[in-house]
Design goal:
single chain; 105 residues; mainly alpha; two-stranded antiparallel sheet; 5 helices; 54% helix
């Protein structure tokens, strides 16, 4: 899960992984789910030999960059999905809400 990103919408609370609540069984379940999800990602063949496949012409560089971005997005999606499905989480309020003390202005 991603940490709080105040820049996007400061009034929305988000959830992050509560690592204190993770035990061996939960981590094993996360590991298994992540392994299963990652196995489903296809690695583009062009990325296996990127030095040769992305040299010429110049437009190939754009294609390779897009392949890398797509592959990265797929991996991150697997990680986030496994985290949200198996690991305990906790609510995190935006920064300005975390340190509000009742009665103090």
């Amino acid at each position: 899960m991603s940490p709080v990103s105040v820049g996007q919408n400061a009034s929305v609370a988000e959830f992050v992984t509560d690592w204190k609540q993770c035990d061996d069984a939960v981590l094993y379940q996360y590991s298994c789910m992540l392994d299963d999800n990652l196995r489903k990602i296809d690695l583009p063949l062009e990325l296996l030999d990127i030095q040769h496949s992305c040299q010429l012409p110049e437009t190939r560089e754009d294609i390779c960059i897009q392949l890398i971005n797509d592959y990265y997005s797929s991996v991150m999606s697997c990680i986030k999905s496994a985290c949200m499905s198996t690991l305990p989480s906790k609510r995190v309020a935006p920064y300005h809400e975390q340190y509000v003390i009742p009665g103090w202005n």
